[in-house]
Design brief:
With about 110 residues, the chain is an alpha+beta fold. It has one domain (about 5-105). The protein has helices spanning about 5-10, 15-20, 55-70, 75-90, 95-105, and strands at about 25-30, 30-35, 40-45, 45-50, 95. The strands form 2 sheets. A 3-stranded antiparallel beta sheet has the order 4-1-5. It has a two-stranded antiparallel ribbon with strand order 2-3. β2 (about 30-35) and β3 form a beta hairpin.
């Protein structure tokens, strides 16, 4: 199990909210895999990143998968690959709001 998720399991809801108020976030990393005429877009499992953590180590394997296997589908492979690379190099897709709504059962803020 990922160390950040192991730590998250030991964290209380008030501690989690405090971490998020300090800049922690949940992110997913999109990636793309192509086989000639078919291109698949997927996302990683959610990662919990503290405010002091860089997203690059977690994003690196998804960047590499897209670079190696994403380009080859025509026409969407190159388009989805560039989109995945941009999203991952920008820190991933922030899904903190959605995760916190699931955890707390709240919606709308």
């Amino acid at each position: 199990m990922d160390d950040s998720l192991k730590t998250l399991n030991d964290m209380s809801l008030p501690d989690l909210k405090r971490e998020i108020a300090q800049g922690a976030r949940f992110v997913v990393f999109p990636y793309c895999v192509s086989i000639v005429v078919m291109t698949f877009r997927r996302s990683s499992r959610p990662y919990f990143l503290r405010a002091t953590q860089s997203s690059l180590p977690a994003a690196l394997k998804y960047i590499l998968v897209s670079l190696l296997f994403g380009w080859w589908g025509i026409p969407w492979g190159p388009i989805y690959t560039v989109g995945s690379l941009f999203a991952n190099l920008s820190g991933g897709k922030d899904i903190t709001k959605e995760i916190m709504e699931d955890i707390t059962g709240a919606s709308g803020g």
